[in-house]
Design a protein that fits this description.
This protein is of the alpha+beta class and 63 residues long. It is built from 2 helices and 3 strands; from the N terminus they run βαββα. The protein has helices at residues 12-25, 48-57, and strands at residues 2-5, 30-34, 39-43.
Length: 63
């Protein structure tokens, strides 16, 4: 399980963008988002760095 904190994720539109970005990296990934905590949990066989890079390119750098 990969857990990332995305401080710039603040609304429903952000949630949709983050979910779509994760699923572009791995269409089989399971995504759980905790918007108030700015957390995304990803269950995938892909390395965490692949998700970090893709999310950063979309404007959501992980801290």
């Amino acid at each position: 399980m990969i857990e990332l904190t995305l401080n710039d994720m603040t609304c429903g539109h952000c949630v949709k963008t983050v979910t779509n970005t994760v699923q572009q990296v791995d269409p089989q990934a399971k995504v759980e988002i905790d918007l108030p905590a700015h957390k995304v949990r990803i269950e995938s066989g892909q390395p965490a760095e692949n998700f970090r890079r893709a999310l950063e390119e979309e404007g959501y750098p992980a801290s």
